[in-house]
Queue: 4 jobs
Job 1
Amino acid sequence: MANLGIKDRPTDKPKLTKLFLNFFRIKAMKRKSFIFSLSPIFSFIFSPIKFITSRIDRGVKVDDGQDRFGKPITLLEGDIFYTKVSTKDSNGDLFIFESTRDKKGGPGLHLHFEQDEWWYILEGEFLFKVGDETFIAKKGDSVFGPRMVPHTFSKISDGIAKMLIGFQPAGKMEEHFISVSEGIYSKLTEEEKRIFRQKNGMQSVGPALTYDKSK
């Protein structure tokens, strides 16, 4: 029997084709299985992370003279804060409260690293200092204080005075006021107070305002 050359040897092309197809099919299935196993991870990365948000999806009415949670924040300087829009309501975008003050005066000169602050006078008169400018604001007036610009205010009228105060974004201001209300701030040393303010996004840069109406 004569030897057959390579070209003359019989081949089973259908079997070879089937073998190659099965090989690539198995590879594709393994790749698909691997990608499918990663799908929960991709879904987690690229989908909105809803579990860390706290934005409400309903309307909220807060009555006149009432606090959003029925628990006003009382500060040592004689202020009572009635929360109207909580940090939790807007997922940190906004914090609005009504400040009622009987005592004259106000906070020391300070600035916020990331918050704009806005004041709207409801009753009484206040002296404001924002940067190099000063304003006397009364009922119906509003004042805006941009972030990183030193500012302060002082109640200068007799009797009760009220104003709406808003922070945008809210930052940690609501948390800061609650800590002060609970007496945590008053127990700290001066250095600890500085660190506390800094952690809450603010810095003290000067004294409170003084005002003499006779001048």
Note: The first helix runs from residue 13 to 46.
Job 2
Amino acid sequence: MAYDEALAQRIREALDGDPALTEKKMFGGLAFMHRGLMFVGVSGTRLMARVGAAQYADSLAREHVREMDFTGRPMNGYVYVEPAGLTDDGLQFWVQRCKAFVMTLPAKAARPATAAKTAKSAKGETAAKAEKGEKSVKLTNSAKPAAKGTKPATPPAAAKKRRPA
């Protein structure tokens, strides 16, 4: 599902100047994050709003708002705001409400690098050294110990011993 780029631009303008904000394509739309936590997003022409459990009932009581049922079940603390509720003042209200809620939560911790990313960056470092003419170190994965009661695997060349002719 595509998202309304004009609405996304309006959100960017409403949030202008905050260095803790990022955008991420997700849910088939665009999510706006504050310190790594999603607080508003664009799904089709609707605003996804993370209002939190305390403001959930009040948010649902407002015009042009309904439960966010992205997964087929209502998600507590999240609502959809239909385009009719996104006047300039309306959009500003929702952006501020959601940002205020997310500011009460601890920042999301950065994910540690995955093994694949680490190996990829290490291979890149090795290639860079080779271009400079430096000696490179061969990267290998550490071998896992053999399970109890099993023999360690031997390479095929070492397994066959040649008999003198």
Note: The CA atoms of residues 12 and 58 lie 25 Å apart.
Job 3
Amino acid sequence: MERLPIAPTSKRVKLLQETGERVTHACSPCLDGLPCRVGQVGEGVIEIGYGPVTDAVRELSLTCVPSTIHTLTVTKSATDGGTVSGGAISCGTTCSTVLPGGDQVTLTATPTAGYRFAGWSGACTGTGECTVTMNSDKTVAATFIEQVTLRVVLLQQGHRTMAMVASPEPSLSPDPCTTTGSGTQRSCTATYDVGTQVTLTASTLGFSVNWLNGPCTDTNVTSCTLTLDSDIDLAVQVAG
């Protein structure tokens, strides 16, 4: 009977259709339960039998037991937005794997800096961990959304105070975003999904507002609407 070379890092092992093939291998947990082929037509999973130890090496009996094999595929909405990991999936780089029918895999999504994880679709929903039962081929999609920062600097003129609010949420931080005294300025920020349209509205006790830079450059108006395609800095002053 032909002997089958098996590398310690093997992910697929071809076995003869006969059972009981004897090999020696130093990493039996690496193989137990992994997919294998039965001849040219069937699929299965490896079962390992343990024999005696000879010269500090345990003899193993590898049997390819027929079993249904399914494919798990992971996709991401943004290549650099984050990683998905769990079981043999490290996506990243490894975004698909084959598993025996009935196996379960739990996937975790981790956003990279400057992105947030918005949720799963396909075989999972929500934003927590994703547990997939492999009773058929499954596809799971992870959505990562780029984040951008809006920064507004309020410049106070004399004793004319100003407060700024942003819509939609989140609120500008610190909240409330207001000037605090004569000749002072206040820097306020908020983080949004890229592409969000934001309206800034200033309260000045009846005075108009000058928007000094950025996409808002109108004078004597108290509000400005802008689309956040990237980080944006604005400066605003009460009109004299």
Note: The first strand starts at residue 13 and ends at 15.
Job 4
Amino acid sequence: MLKNIKKNNNTSVNFSDLFEDVTIDNFDDIYKTDLDCKRTLADIKWKDGFVCRHCGHTNFCSGSDDYSRRCTRCKRQESATAHTVFHSCKINLPEAFKIAFMVCCDPNISAKHISDLLDKRHMTCLNFKKKVLDCKQGVVNDD
């Protein structure tokens, strides 16, 4: 079962929401660019409405980054990736989504196999795989 991407205070976004109707065959068509990934994250993250993490206000305007939101009261901005497993990710979002998708489909997939498929460093794949697995198991880590 696909589990959680940390979201707002005590709620979560499910990986199953993120990868609903996604197969390995159509993955690259759905998540081609960073914007595609951010749009999906924003849609899922704020599907029940925006609530500012700082002041609790629910009104917002667009932030300075794509798919970010800025609270109209305290002016704090939150990106679509903030407080998710994709926050401060060192690899581009489509590749991070692909790693998360592969790990969700097969938690036992080796980091070496992911590394070979994506032509990324083994440690990069291993670290992100661990981050995804921790998230699925509900381990909170706000690195």
Note: The chain has six helices and five strands.
